[in-house]
């Protein structure tokens, strides 16, 4: 299984380009904070991400450096010939799904502000229904499963 899940901030603005056939593509980097700090300084890992088609267009239009994103994708390694003749390898995340998180005002990297009220959550004081067990039956073996 090749699956990557990241939550972080864009480290640079997305770069929208088109292939020769007209397919949109964008590349960007995501900075993901580590749980530990080195010498008291926060550290992050940086991941290169590539998005294709409509996703590339939406990301380029609505996201910019500093904005938060949650994404799912897969790792891909490719190689190319550099101008000096050497062979270079690149590992990147190919985007499959993403969600905007945070707000536009959150792009400064200042963190998340939770403005919930301090009132306690409502309690569910409904009594439990003792007859509920009658609605559910334990299936003893796999032959009883309807699919």
TrEMBL record:
Subunit structure comment from the entry: Homotetramer.
Entry keyword DNA-binding: yes
Organism: Pseudoramibacter alactolyticus ATCC 23263
The keyword DNA-binding is annotated on this UniProt entry: yes
Biased composition (Polar residues): 113-126
Keywords: DNA-binding
The protein, known as: Single-stranded DNA-binding protein
Cross-referenced HAMAP family: SSB (MF_00984)
GO molecular function terms listed in the Swiss-Prot or TrEMBL record: single-stranded DNA binding
Annotated region described as Disordered, given as residue ranges: 103-147
GO biological process terms, semicolon-separated: DNA replication
One Gene Ontology cellular component: nucleoid
Pfam families: SSB
């Amino acid at each position: 299984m090749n699956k990557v899940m990241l939550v972080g901030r864009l480290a640079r603005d997305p770069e929208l380009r088109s292939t020769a056939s007209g397919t949109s593509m964008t590349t960007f980097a995501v900075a993901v904070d580590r749980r530990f700090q080195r010498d008291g300084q926060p550290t992050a890992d940086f991941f290169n991400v590539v998005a294709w088609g409509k996703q590339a267009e939406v990301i380029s239009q609505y996201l910019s450096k500093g904005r938060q994103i949650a994404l799912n994708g897969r790792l891909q390694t490719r190689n190319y010939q550099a101008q000096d003749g050497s062979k270079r390898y690149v590992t990147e995340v190919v985007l499959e799904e993403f969600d905007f998180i945070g707000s536009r005002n959150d792009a400064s990297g200042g963190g998340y502000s939770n403005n919930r009220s301090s009132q306690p959550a409502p309690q569910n004081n409904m009594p439990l229904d003792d007859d509920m067990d009658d609605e559910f039956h334990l299936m003893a073996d796999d032959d009883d499963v309807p699919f």
